[in-house]
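TL;DR need structure tokens for one chain.
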Amino acid sequence: MATLEQEHVQQSKITGSDAWAAFVSWRIWLLTVVFFGLTTSGYGIVLWLPNFIHSLSTASNLRIGVISVIPYVATAIAMVLVGMHSDKTGERRWHLAGSAVIAAAALTAAAQTHSIVPALAAVTVGMMATFSMLGPFWAATTSLMSGTAAAVGIALINSVGNLGGFFGPYIIGVKRSSGGGFRGGMLIIAGFLALAGLLASVVQPPREPSVPDPL
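>> reply
TL;DR here they are.
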């Protein structure tokens, strides 16, 4: 009850019934770019992961399918752990920005690697960090808005940010078709993630009360 009351009285949210409040908020637009970087990386990696593994390995299609499971299992675990730690501490900004920077560094390393084991390890870390952004991102976003402004802000972020779901796979495909393999596309995605990390560090959502340890 104390946590709910504190959330209710926070003064730094974008409030009001006027939908225009979300459109003119610089924080919402920065978060939209952050979400664009997230979806660019997420969709780009996921849709091209089997081809990326195939480009570095002579494994059969069945083995590639099995190998492709590894990043997903690691990512599922990382998302839960990062989300739990963010909730426990009530901190959002650096969980989000830190995950973006780690993802950018990992994908940069993957783009420079030509051996399947280190490349798969780097891509796995990239996926783990990219998708670990989701929990802190939406927690930070909703902590900045309330009322109609929240509905409009979330719609705006989704509408514009999800264009990264087209851009990520497309730019990797274009660079690959041009004869450069996956290197160019992954470096571009890493650049967008680095930008997302920088912008996420600028946005300062209100610090939320930490979740007490039940033990």
